[in-house]
Amino acid sequence: MKNRIKPLTIVCLTGLLIAFSGCESFLEKDPQGALTQETFPTTGSDALLAVNAAYGTMLDLRFHSGIFPLTDIMSDDARKGSNPTDQSTEIGPYDNFMFTKTGNELASWWSTLYMGIKRANVVIEKVPLITMDETLRSRYVAEAKFLRGLFYFDLVRAWGDVPLVSNLTPSVDLARSPREDVYSLIEQDLLDAIAALSEKGQGSGEPGRATKGSAKALLAKVYLFQGDFTNAEKYSVEVITSGKYGLEPDFIDANGVNGEHGIESVFEIGAVGLEAAGGNGYANVQGVRGTPNRGWGFNRPSPDLRSSFENGDPRLKGTIMDLGDVIDGITILGDGTTPDITRDENGTVLETECYNRKVWTPGTDVPTQFGHNRRILRYADVLLIAAEASNENNKPGQALLYLNQVRERARQGNDAILPDITENDKDKLRLLILEERRHELALEGHRFWDLVRTGMAAEVLGPLGFVVGKNELFPVPQSEIDISKGTLTQNQNWN
To answer: Global pTM?
Structure first.
């Protein structure tokens, strides 16, 4: 097992002391808690604390779609999970798109993303005024711009038009900006980050910090979501040809402890195994419920996901953890209050008790589950972005090259399974790449977004309750609309 000491995480523990509190609108909160804009930051040490506070946003459990993996649950890959009664009225409705605009999970997700944006804005606006090492100053600002771009990318995907807060003194009656303007800010932030950041393994040398490759990979994804396949191909290929990344030999290590900050990691959230500051509750929410007691058991892999894998695909067992599995010498027994099999009134299996294998960390208790490093961007995703963009740009040969690298790793040396794809028809290859994304990236928060952006959501998710013209976006939290006294408007068909 690789050394799990995470230097950035340890530094972030100090930055996390600069916290937000209260339940005001995101526009009413002081950017760094008790430290005012006039007194913080003013020194090089302050600058480090400020940028680490921006990173620390990602260790706030609410950063992860308001605690629960909502987009996975809304997709065909997963169901609510846990036991039948746990969060049945709050999160259960995400199984069939019956959730409402008043849910606390959406309000907390929204406010946490804006908290991160404010923390990033402190760095972007104040750090350039500090007399300090010029290289560090430039890097801190570039990292903050990467993070602001990341936070806004979640906002624009989830809500479309959103308030654009790019300084520390926004109007208190700020309205929603068109998504095109939001994307423009994201693109410029990431281009600025690319210009100033070093490649992986250079610069700070601290695992977990944004790099030039992180910014290029995120920018490629941003362009992919806008249908700009020329730029999506350009920036994904630049990551590929940088020589800084590759695929872990073992698929499990792509998300597991042995691959932390490894060759496949483009950007990940470092964490330590503590049920306290520095730990990440993202995996605890999805961890095995019962025996061993690793968490709450949400985000249960669906029967549809299970049956969609090709025969013999090793990624099935690298994605779904079943009762009776033995992992790291630990037998998965599960939760006695959860039915092993749940059926509908017609006897159709809705779910079996199983868990997300990708968030597993060795251990038998809750704190060790908090040590999972969530991968935000990994190299397999970059390869598949390049494959999709190349196909759309009428380069099927290049698309197949990138696509088949992912499949080659997946078959783990067994040439009897997962043969190379040779399809050259653009429409057919598009669907094959989408299906490969499903199997490679399942339960990592990609599937729902992929179905929406490719126009496949109605066909795939319609039977689950997806409504065209409504469920492409989440409702703006009603609490934010109320606080704004109507300045913020609601998304279509959510009133």
So the answer is: 0.93
